[in-house]
Amino acid sequence: MDKDKDKSMIEGGSDVVSGTFHKYRSEFRKIVWPSKETLAKHTVTVVIVSAIFGAYIALNDGAFGFLFRQFVNLVGGA
Fold it and tell me: DSSP characters for the chain?
């Protein structure tokens, strides 16, 4: 009798898994994916903005590093 209960639990578990994947699949079909042109434009925008932001951070890091070294030399550090 325990074997029948275990078997039904296993079979019921596979129904849950297949039902879950069916739900995911139906939701993915509802997604409106961007066109190639839109995707390309957004990718270029992200790359350009990231490069500008990276350059801004690098310049500020260099400037503050330079100012800090000047301050340490002024105060009499090594």
Answer: -HHHHHHHHHHHHHHHHHHHHHHHHHHHHH--PPPHHHHHHHHHHHHHHHHHHHHHHHHHHHHHHHHHHHHHHHHT--
Whole-number Å distance between alpha carbons of 78 and 4: 80
Could you tell me how far CA 14 lies from the centroid of its own chain?
A: 31
Separation CA 46–CA 30 (nearest Å): 26
pTM given for the model = 0.57
Taking residue 38's Cβ as centre, other Cβ atoms within 10 Å add up to 10
CA dist 59 and 52 (Å) reads: 11
Residue 57 pLDDT greater than 80, yes or no = yes
Residue (of 58, 63, 59, 66) closest to 74 by Cα position: 66
